[in-house]
């Protein structure tokens, strides 16, 4: 090995050590956001009392801050992927659901539970897939294929769902597309092109794809994974299917958030390189013992920032905003009743769908 090669390997080892440290960072991230441990404890206690007082439950996505996930667990709420969040909200007896995630998750809860009050810590938390799929443009796109069944990802607005025949999540998309293909129907898929291509490749079903993407998953880079594998050759690569094809090609497991947590639990490997939002580390660590999770790199090898594998909109959810909405009732989700009725049908189909 030349001195230059040796130096570049050392550099990459240093960068990798930084990524492993993300785990410790995550565990203490919420503490850093608060002034001290006492503040954090007091804030959690106030929120617990408010949840009880308001007959509310906290429904949090895996990508939210660890402290919100912890609070949901401690108060009989739920921490899960978007499909399970919808199912949990639908089965809950609470009259208020506080949905910590992004806007479409709050809307999904309202579409399924019109009689419940749905609060979100911030109305500004959106999703690049939702932004990149305006309902009028998507509807015109579908009009060009009148004989096609329209399948949309849950990461869409109520108006886009209302234009669809089916709503899916990444956890069930493969089985659902196989089911529709067996009925011989051509399919339009929107909005995530990477998930759509992955499903098309896996099932052999030729789908018409809307060209949306997730700004977080789209950034994962194969080159950085190769560097980490030099240091941890045993590391298994876990990839969410919203990632580019090159990432899917090198993955040991491709799956939804819940499927990736299960893989981390069941595989014998000690190290895992995880190509999805790093909020998931909280549950991965909880579900495993002595395993090390390494954040998949998003920058190239010369990048100066450590990584950006964190959804900026999921990151908007915090304890202060959560307490505020429970105290004030602000940030209620409203959906026009006619639109709700139209969006309900494809969502209900998703909940009723039983994979074979
Ligand atoms: P899941 O459906 O796996 O929860 O994913 C939602 C999401 O936003 C992924 O980026
Ligand atoms: Fe949307 Fe991507 Fe954020 Fe998920 S991670 S909510 S797909 S922007």
Quick take:
This protein is of the alpha/beta class and 356 residues long. It is 49% helix and 13% strand.
Question: Describe it for me?
Answer:
The protein has about 350 residues and is of the alpha/beta class. It folds into 3 domains: about 1-125 and about 310-340, 3-Layer(aba) Sandwich (Rossmann fold); about 130-215, NadA-like (Rossmann fold), CATH 3.40.50.10800; about 215-310, NadA-like (Rossmann fold), CATH 3.40.50. Helix content is about 50%, strand content about 15%. It is built from 16 helices and 12 strands. The protein has helices spanning about 5-35, 35-55, 65-75, 80-90, 105-110, 130, 135-145, 160, 175-180, 195-205, 220-230, 245-250, 255-265, 280-285, 320-330, 335-350; strands at about 55-60, 80, 95-100, 115-120, 150-155, 165-170, 185-190, 205-210, 235-240, 255, 270-275, 290-295. Strands 2-1-3-4 form a 4-stranded parallel sheet, sandwiched between helices. A 4-stranded parallel sheet has the order 6-5-7-8. Helix 12 (about 245-250) links the parallel strand 9 (about 235-240) and strand 10 (about 255). Helix 4 (about 80-90) packs parallel to helix 5. The longest helix has about 30 residues, at about 5-35. The chain is globular and about 55 Å long. The N and C termini lie far apart (about 55 Å). Mean pLDDT is about 90; it is low at about 1-10 and about 20-25. 1,3-dihydroxyacetonephosphate (13P) binds near residues 170, 214, 242 and 256. 1,3-dihydroxyacetonephosphate binds next to loops.
